Amino acid sequence: MRYGKPLLRHATLSTLIAGGLVVSASAMAEPQGLYSSDELLDADVYTAADSREIGEVEDILLDNDMRVRALVIDTGELLDIDGDQEFVIEAGRFSVETHNGDDLDDIEYRVIVDMSDAQISQQPTYDNDWWQDARQGAHEAWEQTKEGAASAWETTQEGASRALDSIGKALENVGKKTQDAAE
Asked: Considering only the top CATH level, what class is 5-126?
């Protein structure tokens, strides 16, 4: 049994991945509802077209909402590319098959990538330059989302305020007409 940090890491990553793979891996036939990140790391990766092994999962990339956004696939020398390569495969381009899912001690995953070798080799290479660009892009997208949400809220408030003003004026006019009719 594990204690301390490894157990916490395992539990935390498993929880983070629980919903993310279901959403991210849209091609998956039967979502399992809960996935073990510990078992997903180092899972074998295969091509969808010919079920040929092309590497293993090296890393799991999460977004600000802690959803799985991509997997990093280490292809080793399996793709006729010089040297080891690690590629970023975005959610929606892979699915996860579960084997022996009823027993945590025996659970195994197979990651199926829905791309050809040529398409995989065109994916971003997982390196520091990619990491910095992706972090900056994600930060900017988050800021734009926050600004858009704030702007939408302000627009909604302004619209509601105008509507309430119009209703108030209409009620005021009805009140004056009622008072004039009563006199």
From this structure: mainly beta
